[in-house]
Every structure is written in structure tokens, then in C-alpha cells.
């Protein structure tokens, strides 16, 4: 298995990034300002990830993709249900691709 | 069980994405055993896709490792955001949580922790549902290969952004929520024109919430709409 050293190295890097804050920061007292910051941190990170996914950098965007994203936005705002949002978006994109 | 139930849509997408990764991995001359091992140990979709893509491009190992690090940097913010909720959790439970801390697991966990106290059994349900879906689908696809249709035909290319839109948009309840989210999106999209995308996402995620520390303006005697409620910020 030639790729084994690479797989193990990538796994170590990935796990370290995930584990270090949980090990080092849990149990530490935080100021009110830091608590406020950490409260909005998830929204900031997830919004950044969502934006990058909505506008992929290295891939073309076609009408089915735009339609799927638009469907996701409408369903997310109206239903607040992730499953409905996901299925609606995928069906909209898939239908347009077939047509 | 609630963790399992809430994760089923994610597990479905993981399974479909895993099929795509497994098919792609064949181009990198990775067999089912190597793909399965990578999914077992790494368990990070974007990182694994990047690794496989770079292997296909015959990139040197150091470049692959650097890319994996850049893509994983945003996980630092996940752990930081969850840390205040995990003061009472023993170290080994935090390590297990850390292993399964994908984008989606983080989003579900933080939503749960905001509504109730830190519920590690919920997170166990999340990881216990999503992780097998990923490992099995990637390994299976690496073995089946060409029999699997292109992911775009199934609308899979919109699945990842749709999940995150489904998580982020309903969480935007106050003006501060919108400010943080819009600022993060703008910073991410413009930042990646200047630096690698992983770094741009990390920077955007770290910088946007700073706007929440700026004191907001309010009319005298009138509380801001939604401000100070239980659900201020992320759900």
C-alpha cells in the first residue's frame, strides 16, 4: 500500500486541527467579549463555507446549478428544513439536466 | 436517536459524495483498501477529494500535505466554538468528538448545544450515522468504479451548498446574524482571489464575527428586534 504514509500524514494533520482547540480551550474561562465572538463564530465560518459552495471557484456554473441553488435558498427561507431544502435543490438541478 | 434522525439527510449526501470520491480515486490508482483506509483515518470529504485530485496530477507529497493543512484550518474555529460547551467533558470524549468534527457535524452540534446543554449523546448519534455512510460508500465505489453515473446527473453538485444554505439561512434571525453572514460571504469570495481558498475561508470565518463586537445602535427604550433573545446568533 504505497499511499499509506501519505494517508497517515494527512489523517494526522486533519485530526490535529480538529482536536487541538477542543483539548486546549475547553474548561478555560472566557470574557464576555470572547463569548460573544465565539457565539457568532460558527455563523461566520458556515456562511463562508456556504458562499464558497454556492460560487465554486474551479468549476463552471450552469443553469441547472443556479436553479438548484435558487431552489435551496427559497426552501431554506420558507421551510427552515434542511432535508426539504436538500432534496428540492437536487431534484431541481437533476430535472433541468435531464431536460 | 435525535442525532441519528437529524443526520439522515447528511448521511445520504455523504453516501452519494462517497460514491463520487471512490470513482475518482480509481484514476489515482487507489484501490478499495486504500480508499477505505483514507476514509477511516481522515474522514474529511473536501480534503480527500483534494488529495485524490493532487495524486491524479502527480503532485509531490509535501504539496498534498500542505493542501490538507489549509483545508483543515477552518476546523480550528469549530473546536474553538464548541470548547465553551465542553468544560465538563472528559478528554477522551473530546478526542472522539474531534475525530468526527466535519463541517456538517459541527453545524448540527452547535445548533444542538445552543438550544440545550452540551449533549454528547446527540453528537455520538450524528457521527455514528454519518461516518459509516462515508466509509462504506467510498470503499464500495472504489471497488465498483465505472458502473456509477456522473454525480451531476443526480443533482449532487448542488448538494453540498444546499445543505449549508439549509443550515445557515434559517439561523439568520437578527440584524447581527445577517451582518456576520453577509460579511463572511463577501470576505470569503473576495479573499480567495488573493490567497488559497482554504485560507480565505478561515480568514473570513475568523474576521466576520468581529463585527458582532461593535456596539449596535438602538432607539431609546426600544430593544433591537430579536436582540438578546435566546436564539441570538447561531441556532
Which helices and strands appear, and what pairs or packs with what?
The complex is a heterodimer of chains A (99) and B (235).
Chain A: H1 4-25, H2 32-54, H3 63-79, H4 82-98
Chain B: H1 2-27, H2 32-41, H3 45-56, H4 61-72, H5 74-82, H6 91-99, H7 103-115, H8 120-144, H9 159-168, H10 175-191, H11 197-207
Structural descriptors:
heterodimer; A: 99 residues; mainly alpha; 4 helices; B: 235 residues; globular; disordered C terminus
Quick gist of this model?
Helix content of chain A is 80%, strand content 0%. Chain A has 99 residues and is mainly alpha-helical. The model of chain A has no long low-confidence stretch (mean pLDDT 87).
User: What proportion of the residues of chain A form beta strands (DSSP E)?
Assistant: under 5%
Rg of chain B, rounded, reads 19 Å
Number of helices of chain A: 4
Shape descriptor of chain A reads flat
- Global structural class of chain A: mainly alpha
Spatial gap, N to C terminus of chain B: 20 Å
Summarize the biggest pleated sheet of chain B: none
Low-confidence stretches of chain B: 218-235
The low-confidence runs of chain A, each spanning 5 or more residues with pLDDT under 50, are none
Largest sheet of chain A: none
Task: Explain what the structure shows.
The complex is a heterodimer of chains A (99) and B (235). Chain A is mainly alpha-helical and 99 residues long. Helix content of chain A is 80%, strand content 0%. Chain A has 4 helices and no strands. In chain A, helix 3 runs antiparallel to helix 4. In chain B, helix 5 runs parallel beside helix 7. Helices cover 66% and strands 0% of the residues of chain B. At the A-B interface, helix 1, helix 2, helix 3 and helix 4 of A face helix 1, helix 2, helix 3, helix 4 and helix 5 of B.
